[in-house]
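Input chain follows. Return structure tokens only.
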Amino acid sequence: MATTEIKASSSPAALSWARVCKECGQQHEGQDTHLYEYQDEVDDELVCHICLQPLIRPMDTPCGHTYCFHCLSNFLKEKDFCPVDRLRLQLHQCRPSSLLVRNLLDKLNVMCPHYAECQQQMQRCELQPHLHNRCPVFRRLREEAEKRKRPSWHELKGRKNDGESSGDDKHSAALSRNPSRDPSEPGLINPAYEEMDDDNTPQRSSLVAEANVVELFREEPEEDLGLRIVGGRDTPLGNIVIQEIIRDSITSRDGRLAPGDHILEVNDVSLASVPHARAITVLQQPALLRLTVMQEKGFKIRDQRSDQQPSTSTAPQ
């Protein structure tokens, strides 16, 4: 059995949001050299023979050895043989390890790098969602970084005073070009206001939301919808929200959903106050899915049926 000795995480006061890794929560060099604090000893078969740590992105060599992808690629930049048996080796001859090995690695128990305050332990594959959704230290670092990016009230006030004279000139010029507009008419200085296009198509010009029903159809029960969601009762976000839509997926081809939409119901099953895992299970139902979603009013739906044949991935009428 291999004993993994990982340096303790720096104190929260010494951490920097710009330098901390968004995947493992540690400060380290490079993008793939992630550091984890393992709770138990790790079997030797799951340890890289170069860095002597549990494998990350494991790669198998033709001669039967397994290394971290980052460790092996760096080694083969200077050498042309396997580090263990010294047989001739090139990176393109190596293949990712089996799903079984990757699952075993994902299930290794690790501690949150901010365990002193967070007091949480989890499987390695769950650490990144924990950091972004539940870890108080990680959330505080992100909020502090966002605050530093925002200008203070005094800076905004100073900019406003500095630009008053030039703003008055621009306003007068605008009135001269548009004499029919009443300067006191509400909404004309709303930054969310947008002019209509020539085809009078509504744009995202309102902050008012409305509920819409979208039907998606899986031709194969195991076919991926192409939705990535965040939120749930067990996260700070609470509601189930679409984070990403995968290109060339069922949802992408349908064109009616967008990142930021709130999923309220699926096949008349409410997703209000349900855990994240439960929401994923509900969305994995086969065949027809009837989604009730909250969308920004004025959202322009991309109607693909006007310029191409109906896709088999959309719900039948």
